[in-house]
Specification:
The structure is a single chain. The chain has one helix and ten strands. With about 240 residues, the protein is mainly beta. The chain has one domain: Porin (Beta Barrel). Strands 1, 2, 3, 4, 5, 6, 7, 8, 9 and 10 form a ten-stranded antiparallel sheet that branches. Strand 6 and strand 7 form a beta hairpin. About 5% of the residues have low confidence.
Length: about 240
């Protein structure tokens, strides 16, 4: 039932995203000009769902969050392209923890960790066919915030919610390797297109700065739609 709810939320968010894309893409072109809306170099708006885990922790389960950002397409050859991206909304969430970090005695604790990163991936993309492409490359993620939220009851029966800042015990940045499969749902017509992308990011190194206390890398799945904007005069029917 939980995953059906997440899927429903994803569909709703994507529908809302697509209704806004025309105006947003047009605004980008007005700001930056037609030079960022050509077949060889253009921007895209990306949004979707991220499912993340910290596999090094003994407890906890995967959590989901909303993923959003800006993509760039740089054509190198007919088959190869470069795709630097800027993703300011890229949460990593772990649920089902049992008071991992705090020493406070709480009855029936329900805790989760939420980490907010700013992702900057640079992907090298290969066009396998008219609709399918694969991509991979390095990514650096800058830590924006991190907190542990625990709810439950004290021994007195009083309900409590405690928020603990985890940023001091975490590294300021984290390296990942994204692996991506893309499918073009619609071809470029009238300056518009739509791609769906499935990406897996595996972490390199530890997200925690104090490895003697806690240690884990990252494991992140992302499924999102990409709305590239190309000037209609540049597109081919």
């Amino acid at each position: 039932m939980k995953w059906f709810k997440l899927l429903g939320l994803f569909v709703f968010l994507e529908f809302t995203f697509l209704t806004l894309c025309n105006a947003q893409a047009g605004l980008l072109v007005l700001i930056f000009g037609d030079k960022v809306a050509s077949e060889n170099f253009h921007l895209s708006l990306d949004a979707g769902l991220t499912i993340s885990d910290l596999p090094g922790l003994d407890q906890g389960s995967s959590g989901a969050g909303f993923y959003f950002g800006l993509g760039t397409y740089i054509k190198l050859t007919d088959k190869w392209s470069l795709a630097p991206e800027f993703k300011p909304v890229s949460p990593l969430k772990i649920r089902g923890l049992n008071d991992v970090f705090m020493g406070i005695e709480i009855q029936d604790p329900d805790a989760y960790i939420k980490i907010n990163y700013i992702d900057v991936p640079v992907l090298l993309q290969y066009q396998m066919s008219r609709r399918f492409s694969i991509a991979a490359g390095p990514q650096i993620s800058f830590l924006n915030s991190s907190k542990l939220v625990t709810t439950g009851k004290l021994s007195t029966g009083e309900s409590v919610e405690i928020k603990e800042n985890l940023k001091p015990i975490m590294n300021d940045y984290h390296f990942q390797i994204p692996l991506q499969l893309s499918y073009a749902l619609s071809t470029m017509r009238g300056g518009k297109g739509l791609d769906i992308k499935l990406r897996y990011n595996f972490g390199l190194g530890d997200v925690f700065s104090n490895n003697e206390l806690y240690s884990s890398n990252t494991s992140v799945w992302q499924i999102f739609v990409s709305f590239p904007f190309i000037n209609s005069s540049e597109t081919k029917e």
